[in-house]
């Protein structure tokens, strides 16, 4: 029996790539993963594309990955779910233009 078996607790999962993901339009191997984590590939529609092919990532893809130790699952998910910050600003505040009833029940 392996002495290091307690160190190996692999966790497989897929992360859906959103429209505002920072990874849209880049190749899979450009992503820097946490230690003890690896890519398996991408699931696009009903086709699995191997990580060895280094596919470009599109919105709607699922990135398939493995964390060799369960302690790294959270770090891997946080890494793969990174999105662009969205800043939205109006010239006027919508709350100011809304009428509020002065009646209190």
UniProtKB/TrEMBL annotation:
Top-level taxonomic group: Bacteria
Sequence intervals crossing the membrane: none
InterPro entries given in the database record: RCK_C, RCK_C_sf
UniProt-listed SUPFAM superfamilies: TrkA C-terminal domain-like
Domain RCK C-terminal, residue spans: 14-67
Protein name stated in the entry: TrkA C-terminal domain-containing protein
Organism: Nostoc flagelliforme FACHB-838
């Amino acid at each position: 029996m392996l002495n290091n078996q307690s160190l190996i607790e692999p966790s497989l999962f897929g992360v859906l790539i959103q429209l505002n993901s920072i990874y849209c339009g880049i190749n899979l191997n450009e992503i820097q993963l946490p230690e003890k984590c690896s890519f398996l590939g991408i699931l696009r529609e009903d086709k699995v594309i191997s990580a060895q092919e280094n596919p470009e990532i599109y919105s709607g893809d699922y990135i398939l990955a493995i964390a060799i130790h369960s302690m790294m699952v959270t770090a891997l998910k946080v890494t793969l779910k990174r999105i662009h910050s969205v800043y939205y600003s109006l010239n006027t505040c919508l709350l100011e233009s809304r009428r509020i009833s002065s009646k209190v029940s």
